Amino acid sequence: ARPQLMGEPEEAREVVERLVGLSDLVKCSDEDIAWLYGEDADLETVLRSWLGAGAAVVVVTRGKHGSEVATASGLRFTKTPGDVAVVDTVGAGDSFMGGIIDAMWGMGLRGADARETLRTLPEEQVRAIIDRASAVSDVTVSRKGANPPWAHELA
Question: What is the SS3 assignment for 125?
Fold first, then answer.
């Protein structure tokens, strides 16, 4: 969420919920949810709502608390972050999403042909995607600047 660009949360929420309904995979932060729904927003309620709207996978990053993952097929888990000395959090969320895209691309999960597959991904694939995203983000926050890793750094 970009409050400076999106107006009031109530107006933005309507747009975000419409876009969630059109999306296969949604990634946001706990701070985004707090801005959209209020500081006391129930994460479980938001996850169920977004999955019910049509998203196949919803991932909520929670900074040093890792990420929450929920899928339309009923999978739900928390990914704890690696043991990383955090130097700079700039780019953490973007690199996490880049890691998701990289993992999905490597699994052939891209384009309209993958839409139905995303709805029934086996747990090991979902976990592999989130593991890759976490690894990319862990490297990014371990150094100054929004400086994501090269592929050879993740091998």
Answer: helix
